[in-house]
Amino acid sequence: MILLSGGLDSATALAVARRDGHRCVTLAIDYGQRHRVELAAAALVSKQLGAVEYRVVPIDLRAVGGSALTAEIEVPKDRSDAAISHGVPITYVPARNLTFLAIAAGLAEVVHARDIYVGTNAVDYSGYPDCRRPFIDAFVAAANLGTKAGSESQEPWLRVHTPLSELSKAAIIRLGVSLGVDYALTTSCYDPMTDASGKPLACGRCDSCQIRRRGFEEAGVADPTRYA
User: Fold this and answer.
1) Of all residues in the chain, what percent carry a pLDDT higher than 90?
2) Which homologous superfamily is 2-219 in?
3) Which pLDDT does position 194 carry in this prediction?
4) How far apart are CA 30 and CA 92, in angstroms?
């Protein structure tokens, strides 16, 4: 089971899961995010990397709000590296990964999967508390205690893999390229727009665009992103 956002990191996590020999079910969450082009990207990535099934689960985190991705709050642009790396940014979505992992665990129980792969990364997104391994470990413990599959298993039923957690963006890109990820299919922008023909463009100025652009530069890989 792969939590797939349509972004660079989760696409690479899917490729790693395939490398590890898994038949992959991919799960995208339609949570009311402003960057909804990622849902179309997730479907393309899922197909390109050979997932056996792609599912979308709709929820509406706009009812919770509190984030520039789910409420009428301006997405920060043109921030310095120091600003990006300091504190929890307004693009943090309250309890998003907690919610997503709970849904993924439920689906894993239904489809009899034991392994969930996520593209969380604590190096480039250190401001997000739900991207860190201690949170993941605490969730795994709770899921094994609070599910039928966990209660009936003689050993921990659920495993959550974070293969990218300690990698730089450049290292993630190099890994993905080696595993055949087509990054032209992915999107990372927090505030995308469209061109005259209606095709999506990345803003090039939000935190995520800046981190993505720098990652390709440092990896020595051509950036396929279409920026405004």
Assistant:
1) 84
2) HUPs (3.40.50.620)
3) 87
4) 16
